[in-house]
Design a protein that fits this description.
The protein is of the alpha/beta class. It is built from 13 helices and ten strands. It is about 45% helix and about 10% strand.
């Protein structure tokens, strides 16, 4: 049986969501009781910068503490993926930014970081490190900095630096790269027919640059790579991709975050409980859920499995340590950020 402290801290491995601009009292109590690790915010949670600042202050007061604040996350890439708009600087798409200089991208993401920091969002689910396929835009399209891996790598590193200058952590996505598929992961599990050698020479280049630039987190892709060892197992649920490639080969020591586990594509094969269990077994640190009913059901089921010894507690303990280290890194960065 696992140590009681590991079970008590198991909630740190979950990023969850709630509907509307203000959480229900039961949601706040849930965050506090189970020490949930963080929240992801969407358009329906947002009304204004003032409302968002007040909301996050209450969430941190009820769900976090001085040593382990909540991760408060949002997809703030720019272009068609920017959750907060009114009161925030409109960000160009990454494709547009990629046609400029890395210095301009760094400035752009410093502006984004300053505005996110101003409302106490501490983890940006971006930038996108996918390389857009040259022969077809795929579903990533203008969410990518471009079709050249070296160019994408320079802009990804610049975006991470810009966010870091303002005390905001970056989560790059979608490892090991989903720019080479035209399928939409919101509808089906996409496939990228590329060998590991091809990915090493192309798609993985921006992720190496992101790791070197100090990315706090990497989000995995609900994508299969049938020409690699992982076969038809999505990278997000694959020990090969999470542990063997990302951790051991690329040397990433930060947080591995799943893409949303209720995304329609992944749910054509797995329910939210099974995908959560497989993601943890693969070495994932943070499970991302965005539907209230699914997230509660998955949390309770997985916590029960951990308590009964059906989930190995050793990787859970390692994830808890990494989460606390990154949270402490954010506390330190936020406390020493540049004041303009």
């Amino acid at each position: 049986m696992p140590d009681a402290d590991i079970v008590a801290e198991f909630g740190q491995l979950f990023i969850m969501a709630f509907d509307g601009p203000w959480p229900a009292p039961d949601t706040l109590e849930y965050l506090r009781t189970f020490r949930i690790g963080g929240l992801i915010l969407f358009e329906d949670n947002y009304e204004s910068p003032e409302q968002l600042r007040e909301l996050i202050a209450v969430l941190q007061a009820r769900g976090g503490d001085d040593h382990a604040p909540l991760f408060v996350c949002a997809d703030h890439e720019g272009g068609r993926v920017q959750r907060f708009r009114r009161g925030f600087t409109p960000l160009p798409s990454m494709a547009e930014a990629g046609r400029g200089t890395p210095a301009a991208t760094e400035h752009l993401f410093r502006t984004a970081g300053r505005e996110l920091r101003g409302v106490a969002v501490n983890l940006n689910l971006g930038p996108v490190a996918d390389v857009c396929a040259a022969d077809q835009p795929g579903t990533i399209g203008d969410r990518s900095f471009g079709t050249d891996p070296a160019t994408v790598a320079r802009h990804v590193a610049a975006a991470i630096r810009g966010l870091a200058e303002e005390g905001v952590l970056a989560c790059v996505k979608h490892f090991p790269g989903q720019g080479g598929t035209g399928q939409d992961g919101h509808r089906e599990v996409p496939c990228v027919p590329a060998t590991l050698e091809r990915l090493q020479q192309h798609d993985l280049i921006p992720f190496r640059a992101a790791i070197a630039a100090g990315a706090a987190a990497v989000m995995t892709a609900h994508v299969t790579y049938p020409d690699c060892v992982s076969g038809d197992t999505p990278a997000s649920l694959s020990t090969y991709w999470v542990t063997d490639v990302l951790r051991r080969q690329l040397g990433f020591a930060g947080l591995v975050v799943s893409d949303a586990l209720e995304m329609k594509g992944i749910m054509t094969r797995y329910d939210p409980i099974d995908s959560g269990r497989l993601a943890l077994a693969a070495g994932t640190d943070l499970l991302l859920y965005y539907k209230e009913d699914d997230q509660y059901e998955a949390f309770y089921a997985l916590r029960q499995a951990l308590r009964h010894g059906d989930i190995d507690p050793a990787p859970i303990a390692a994830s808890i340590r990494r989460i606390r280290q990154v949270k402490q890194r954010w506390i330190t960065a936020a406390g020493s950020r540049r004041v303009d």
